Amino acid sequence: MEEMNTRVLRITEAKDNAIFVYEEIENKLLGWVHVFGKYLIELEYAEIGGLDIDCNARRQGIGLKLMGKCEIGAIENGYQEIKLRLGEQRKEAHKFYKKIGCDKIKSQQLFLLKL
To answer: Which Pfam families has this protein been placed in (predicted)?
Structure first.
């Protein structure tokens, strides 16, 4: 838990990074999204680092509201697009992103080099 708190602090202090949360009146966390700026030689864009909605709160518009916050933040920071990456097995998430207007642009594999 301490490692996660450290990462959250680093994210919230970094320029072009934001975490948006959705809470109930009783301060129960129902969802969160992390969006960050990505700078490459060829282009720059905003990217979703993660979006998670409590399993008992899905299909209530929370994900849509959180993504709306990301869109506003990305526009305010001068980005023209938001990208996100999903595993092929996340079929319900694929449906959600298509429903809110995202287009699948490619499939890819992820490789890891442990250090």
So the answer is: Acetyltransf_1 (PF00583)
